[in-house]
Amino acid sequence: MSTYQPVLHLRGEFAVIRASVDSDGNGDRLRLFCEPAGLELFLDPLQVEALARLPESTLEEILNHIRIDAPAELGGGEGGSS
Question: CB–CB of 36/54 below 8 Å?
């Protein structure tokens, strides 16, 4: 059975994310859950560090290649964002 220790709840214009620590594997992992989309991602400490080391320009490039619609509760929905 999975047990998640709540860490924080982030809410922005285009995302609602719940972060917690997953201790069920061979070591702690960061669990990110995108509430509106129902997406879940687990990152180990090395993966988190790799993301932290990415230049901001690289993160912007990644975001430019994906479409994230604003969740309905944040004013998104039918039109979303482009």
Answer: no
pTM to 2 decimals? 0.70
Which residue has tokens 């994230």? 68
CB 31 within 8 A of CB 19: yes
d(CA 41, CA 43): 7
What are the sequence ranges of the domains in the chain? Answer: 4-74
Q: Tokens 């619609």 correspond to what residue?
A: 69
Q: Encode pLDDT of 2-21 as tens digits.
A: 666 667 999 988 889 999 99
CB 17 within 8 A of CB 32: yes
| Residue 22, number of CB atoms within 10 A of its CB | 18
